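A reminder from the course coordinator: this example appears on the midterm review sheet, so study it carefully.

Given structure:
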């Protein structure tokens, strides 16, 4: 899910986590910003035998780089099953189109966002509409770093009203928003970053 700002950082993180790049069979790119796509080229040098899922709005340069490396490129036009239990919610947003990842688990729906430029509350509402499922966890960047306290409160309240049970904000969420999530979700707030592991069974307690 996304490749970070540069390849050496991505490959270094994979090594630290004990993940062999050759075991990866798909690359999911949420949106066309360099801090999410910058590591793709070097990753594909290490393992070109993957499927890259991206939106049609991605630059021709990104698409050509993936294709020329030998990867299969799938331009996601709408909600799409990637494999049993895993799907893309398809394009959401106009100014900065973005796709998010949904995982159907026995415990509930898990959503992963890149930056949530279309609004994390809109992503969750769209996921519920598409799947009909309750959201156990939403994790990733929530794009609230520059939001006002009023805007942050409104987003957090919307997620609560949408029935989100757990939140793991990271990346571009911002420290102020993280504090509001922590205060609102309590023990269902999960600080997260590279290498964070969450046991889904624990999230249902």
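Designed residues:
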């Amino acid at each position: 899910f996304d490749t970070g700002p540069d390849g050496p950082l991505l490959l270094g993180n994979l090594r630290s986590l004990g993940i062999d790049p050759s075991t990866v069979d798909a690359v999911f790119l949420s949106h066309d910003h360099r801090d999410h796509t910058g590591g793709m080229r070097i990753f594909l040098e290490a393992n070109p035998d993957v499927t890259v899922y991206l939106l049609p709005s991605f630059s021709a340069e990104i698409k050509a780089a993936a294709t020329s490396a030998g990867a299969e490129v799938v331009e996601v036009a709408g909600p799409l099953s990637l494999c049993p239990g895993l799907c893309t919610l398809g394009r959401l947003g106009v100014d900065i189109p973005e796709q998010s990842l949904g995982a159907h688990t026995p415990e509930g729906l898990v959503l992963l966002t890149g930056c949530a430029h279309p609004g994390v509350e809109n992503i969750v509402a769209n996921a519920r509409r598409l799947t009909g499922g309750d959201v156990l966890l939403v994790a990733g960047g929530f794009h609230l770093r520059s939001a006002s306290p009023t805007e942050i409160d409104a987003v957090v309240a919307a997620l609560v009203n949408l029935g989100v049970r757990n939140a793991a904000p990271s990346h571009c969420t911002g420290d102020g928003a993280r504090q509001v999530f922590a205060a609102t979700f309590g023990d269902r707030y999960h600080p997260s970053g590279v290498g964070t592991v969450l046991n889904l069974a624990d999230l249902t307690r």
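Residues 115 and 141 are 4 Å apart (CA to CA). Residues 1-75 form one domain.
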